[in-house]
Amino acid sequence: MADPDAAGDGGVVTDKTRTKADGIMGEQHILDLQNVGKTYSTGAVSARILDGVEFTVDRGEFVCVVGPSGAGKTTLLKCIAGLTSPTTGRTLFEGEEVTEPPAKLAVIFQDYSRSLLPWLTVAKNIELPLQKARFPAKERPDIITEALSNVGLEGKGSVYPWEMSGGMQQRAAIARGLAYQPDVLLMDEPFAAVDAQTRIDLEDLVLGMSRRLGMTVLFVTHDIDEAVYMAHRVVVLSGTPAKVARDIPVDLPDERDQVTTKNLPRYGKLRAEVFGLIQEAKHAVTRDIGMVRA
Amino acid sequence: MTAKTTLRGWRLVLLRAWLPVTLVVLWWTLSAGSEALYFPPLQEILTTLVDEWILGPRWRDDLLPSLANFTIGFGVSVLLGTALGVLLGMSPVVRALFAPVLTFFRSLPSPALIPIVLGILGIGAGMNISLIVLGAIWPILLNTIDGVRSVDTQLREMVRSYRLTRRQVITYVILPNAGPQIFAGYRISLQIAIILIVVSEMVGATHGLGYYVLESQQLFMVTQTWVGTILLGIIGYLLTLIFLRIERRVLRWQIRMRQATGAS
Ligand SMILES: Nc1ncnc2c1ncn2[C@@H]1O[C@H](COP(=O)(O)OP(=O)(O)OP(=O)(O)O)[C@@H](O)[C@H]1O
Ligand SMILES: [Mg+2]
Predict the structure, then answer these.
(1) Alpha carbons B197 and B211: distance in angstroms, whole number
(2) Looking at this predicted complex, what is its ipTM?
(3) A200 touches chain B (CB under 8 A)
(4) How far is the CA of A280 from the centre of ligand 1 (A)?
């Protein structure tokens, strides 16, 4: 596998899984996962969830991670976010090993109802992470207003989270992430709990936002359509313990549209490819569970 | 809509008031002209109450000191209990260090401490206040520890990933999250503090409401004993009422959320 220092030195990386060309020579990957493995141990039982996960994300890229339920997607995200440390290997954020949550990284969690503070208004929720050093007090109102308008929640700053619909709450959580002005936005199945129409709206919202702001997004999802529709690249996790089964570049036009993009023959082919990989991965999981039970 | 609400408000007042009013009226009429030693007429009791406690100097000499002891004792319990609770709740190490001692002290019935506290501090306000604190702090401490520990895992991760400072975590996450439980602790402690103010003054004071009740009983001043008892009832009731007011104000967001979502 790749020499861990190659990317940092600007050397040519010859990793087979890196299908997308690396950035300009000498520019480091914004995220670099090196042989990431994770084993959870609870008492006598220990479960190997991840083993040798390797991929990189470049600045401005939108990468989707897909995999069957229980594959370890959330675990992987936590390793990248510095919320848990990998058992083996390491993850680099802007060239530095992640040992604690990086300041220029924000996470949008799946369950918005447990990520916003119900005793604070939306504006206060957004303001809370804006520390003095990076965000002078007098700039904050503007930052908050802009973040709210970016997610279509103009004038909702004084509302409490529980006064809003699920979709609006997730928008508020995204606004908080945006206001934080991260270099990378990690999203863990952010739309899993909203209805289909809201989901489509939120997909386009995040897509438009990331393109407009040139933001790097790592997006975990169950949904194959969502992954192919949004991503520059789809990383498929599979196996127990999980590793990268395939890293598929999505060679669709950068401008995505729910109707046009999804009608492209290329979209259908990519979707089928990811679908096939996931089915395989699922069967692998069932088989492994069966073996454990036997 | 508004008319209906006001009507309901009036109805509520009537529903609540009928029993107390009926009881007082019954008491007043049945006890009128009573010669029984232990049941003086209510009229006489109330006259004595007004004469001694409102027109006389007792409000200054006995009522205020009792209230002051209560306020200091309960206040110290609240501040100390909450602060220590946050500390213990946040640190498993500190918790492990103090858990056995905590369990021991909270199982100790606080009146059992009276002889020792009395021996060490002697009669007076210091003893009264100490006894209140020693009895009332435990529910606050234990509820705060529990509440502090109950922060949801995803919320914890949100807090960590946004790198909130310790101070922010305590004021904006831990305390509000534990608020309902902390206030449940305050409520139990309030009742304990009211009981202990009486008990401590009965044995360790030379004035105060508790002292007055016991003293008058020992001197067979039955009317005065009734006066003291009624006063204690009224004060306990008022303190509870004030407390509920404050609780409703501080936990406003939670009440409104419950109304809005129908959830707990
Ligand atoms: N803290 C933990 N301790 C022990 N086991 C854990 C822990 N967190 C997750 N696991 C286990 O690790 C496995 C992977 O969990 P993870 O949440 O990463 O999967 P996932 O791919 O995100 O699943 P889903 O799609 O359902 O969200 C699961 O079997 C889970 O039970
Ligand atoms: Mg998950």
Answers:
(1) 10
(2) 0.83
(3) no
(4) 19
